[in-house]
Amino acid sequence: MDKLYKNMPINSSYRRLIEKSKSSVDSDSNWLITLSDLLSLLLVFFMMFFVMTKNTKQLENVEQGKTRNQSYPAIIPPQAADAISERVRNEVTSEIKNLSLTDDVSVRAVDKEIIITMKERVSFSPGEALILKRSEAILDHIASIIEKNPVFLVEIEGHTDNVPINTHIYPSNWELSVGRATSVLKYFINKHGIDPSRLSIKGNADQHAIAPNDTPENRAQNRRVEIRLKEKEV
User: Fold this and answer.
1) CA distances from 167 to 125, 127, 152, 204, 226 (A)
2) Contacts of 227 (CB under 8 A, 6+ apart)
């Protein structure tokens, strides 16, 4: 087209008008290109803003759900904790009397612990770790107390006398004491569904005797299981 204009016999005035018109068209085109770029950038910005806002709301919903589902340990004043311990001790004592187990089961409070002691003759056969039927009633009652009082963690300790044992299941008193504590733990979990995270076991063999191992009667006192209800630290 430019060649055509150049070859046409036109006067100088008309030629200046054509050149001015071409310059004006180029200027208008440049303006349209700039506007198009701006609109594209705005579109990209709004799309990014929409995506970021949506993800932020989803994250907030997740965090709120976690907060609703998260459980926090209750902070219990010392006076209230003492009252709970006293009530539980009295309740266990009463049940021991009702079951006529005062010679074989005892309960006492030491610091922030309630210690329930079960002698061997009510809980296990000699050299065995299978729970006896006659101990199930008191174990059921203890389990109900554990369930109703989440303030307590439970430590189950097995103890023996100093008479050596050597069987294919229990090569020493260490294994026997752990086996007996484990049997009580499994009873609480399997029969009563107590949360395993609240339970722990310890086997002490003859290392924590409560009487000298010098007579059959004293050795019988040492063969025991202790169930310790311990207040959670807050």
Assistant:
1) 14, 9, 36, 18, 24
2) 115, 116, 117, 118, 142, 154, 155, 156, 157, 184
Q: Which long-range contacts (CB under 8 A, 24 or more apart) does 29-32 make?
A: none
pLDDT single digits (tens) 190-211:
999 999 999 999 999 999 999 9
Using a cut of 0.70, tell me whether the model's pTM lies above it: no
CB 198 within 8 A of CB 146: yes
d(CA 188, CA 196): 9
Write the CA distances from 85 to 45, 78, 98, 108, 225, integer angstroms. Answer: 63, 11, 20, 10, 20
Stated length of the chain = 234
90 burial level (CB within 10 Å; 0-12, 13-18, 19+): exposed
Q: Which stretches does DSSP call E strand in the chain?
A: 105-110, 113-119, 152-159, 199-203, 224-231
Supply the mean pLDDT for the chain. 82
Mark residue 201 as left, alpha or beta (left: phi above 0; alpha: psi -120 to 50; beta: remaining). beta
Contacts 24+ apart (CB under 8 A), 61-70: none
Kindly report the CA angle at 131 between 125 and 134, in degrees rounded to 5? Answer: 85
pLDDT digits (tens, 9 = 90+) for 112-169: 899 999 999 999 999 999 999 999 999 999 999 999 999 999 999 999 999 999 999 9
Q: Determine the Cα–Cα distance for residues 143 and 118; give it in Å rounded to an integer.
A: 14
Q: For residues 146 and 194, give the distance between their C-alpha atoms in angstroms, rounded to a whole number.
A: 8
Structure tokens, 178: 């752990």
